[in-house]
Amino acid sequence: MAPMVHGLEAEYSGKIKFSFLDADDPNTDSFQSDLGFYSQPEFYLVNADGKVLKKFIGYVSEDDFRNTFAQYLQ
C-alpha cells in the first residue's frame, strides 16, 4: 500500500499533511496507545486539533481514501 499512499500524499500536498509512524519504534508507544493502534496497517485521518476523524484498519482502496478525503476537504 505504501506506493499508493505516497502517491496520495503527493496529490494532496498542501491540503492534507501525511505523517508516518514507525510502529516498531518504542518511542511511539504512547502515541500508538493514544490512537488505539492495534495492528498494521492502520491509517488515521486526524484534524488539526488531534481528533481522529476516521480510522482505517487493514487494506484500504484508493477510492476509499479519496471518498473520505472529499468529505473533509469541502
What does this structure look like?
With 74 residues, the protein is an alpha+beta fold. It has one domain: Glutaredoxin. It contains 3 helices and 2 strands; from the N terminus they run H-H-E-E-H. The longest helix is centred in the C-terminal third of the chain and has 11 residues. The mean pLDDT is 91.
What is the H/E string?
HHEEH
Inertia-based shape: globular
**What's the main sheet like?**
2 strands, antiparallel
Radius of gyration over all CA atoms, rounded = 12 Å
Search tags:
74 residues, alpha+beta, Glutaredoxin, 2 strands
Map the helices and strands.
Layout: H1 2-11, H2 29-35, E1 42-46, E2 52-57, H3 62-72
Summarize the structure.
The chain has 74 residues and is an alpha+beta fold.
